[in-house]
Amino acid sequence: MAAPPCITKFMYWIGYDIGSSSVKAALVESATGREVARVQSPEREMPITSDQPGWGEQPPGLWWEHVKKATSELLRTTDTKAESILGIGISYQMHGLVAVDRDLKVVRPSIIWCDSRAVGVGDRLMEAVGENRCRDRLLNAPGNFTLSKLAWVKEHEPERYVRIHQVMLPGDYIAMKFSGTCTTTASGLSEGILWDYREEAPATWLMEAAGIDPGLLPRVVPTFGAQAEIGAQGAAETGLREGTPILYRAGDQPNNALSLNVMQPGEVAATGGTSGVVYAISDRLDTRELHRVNHFAHVNHSAGAPRIGKLLCINGTGIQYSWMQQNTPGSLGYPQMNELAASVAPGAEGLRIFPFGNGAERMLRNVHPGASIQNLDFNIHKQPHLYRAALEGIAFSFVYGMELMAEDGVNLQRIRAGNDNLFRARPFAETITTLTGASIEMVATTGAAGAARAAAVAAGAFPDMEAATATDAVQLRYEPLSESGPYREAYTDWKNKLETLLKTHQT
Predict the structure, then answer these.
(1) Angstrom distance (rounded) from CA 344 to CA 321
(2) Is 250 within 8 Å of 188 (Cβ atoms)?
(3) Could you tell me if 226 and 342 lie in one domain?
(4) 291 belongs to a structural domain
(5) Has residue 278 been placed in a domain?
(6) Helix 426-436 and helix 383-407: axis angle, to 10°?
(7) pLDDT at residue 420, as a whole number
(8) Cβ(360)–Cβ(366) under 8 Å?
(9) Could you give the percent of the chain with pLDDT greater than 90?
(10) Residue at 166 is within a domain
(11) How many domains does the chain have?
(12) How far apart are CA 114 and CA 174, in angstroms?
């Protein structure tokens, strides 16, 4: 680790969170780790192109445009000089495929995390190399992840594939735009199912089995540490100083856990953004659950001290609640929707909503049942019932997935969540805590602030993330409700209906 930088009161770190909805940038005080300011660009969600059902694409240049806008606004509104920025960290939407040519120009739009077109490609690849080998060396099935998406491009778009010089994750692309060089990390490669845990090296054998040249992978740099420096072009476009170090990079869910100081075995983080995630830390390099729960190298993983993030992802969570907001009358904000939902008793008088309308769901074995509403009664159910059933449907999906994780050895006693997601909706959080028995702690932090603090830790300004997050406090705590009967009855009914729905889509 580099020697600690000279810290003064008016020096800062910047963290970026590159989402599929927006780009967030946070300014963190160097001496204390306190978040000074945060901006978001754009204010409304970035579009996702879906030319076919289950597809999802975004142009990587769109992310960069909003990185530039967010940086400019952050510096302008805080009157911060570029010379005051000690370094940057990057968090980003996971699993996306970014391909560039020899001139570092994008070859095609990014196939992003929620795109399910490559499911069949991943299934064929696992059949070719063997399930046991995938379990032992990858801790995952190739599934619908970055490597499978690249193999899909090779199969379906050969004229584009032959132009590819390097393939990257979305955060690697942003680091490339800042620095002018292509690099990646072990944590990033693991989320693309491109990392061999037994060899602690890229899974070149899997790439070769897919007919892909391992030379397409960039150089691997540490997750924490000097990854690159902002180049002349990156400085000119963002207003930051040339030579400013890039010190940290991780996918949004490992970074969310880091932001909440979830770093050691037995600790659990959760988030309810566009997708919903439960992320539990383990030190075991084995799993019984190869398909429905995924396993990625956590930000502090190393060969001598394994730290594996066991990740449950539900694609259709916050995006369903956003859809509900946009397509019900009144132009209500989320707090008003939450209040109306809370006015309805648990169970929403029999109304059931299934939020699986955002691509194939891994925890459902990559089935894409679509979103649906059941038991709607025109004489009973009103707008508040829709909001309650929507929140419950998302919460029930979390609980369903947590049951899978418990079967794979995860001990759910305490969950930590950020304060900028669905967990602010009391009906949602109370449903989860009551059905799982796990307490939920909400901490007022964000992925962007976490990335900035991680950069500070990487530079030696703080000894660890506990010290870097010391200014954060638990703002809200949920405990299981004693009257659990209505929640369990509603969940059992929802789960039974889901099983019927899945049988319909599997036949």
Answers:
(1) 17
(2) yes
(3) no
(4) no
(5) no
(6) 30
(7) 62
(8) yes
(9) 85
(10) yes
(11) 2
(12) 19
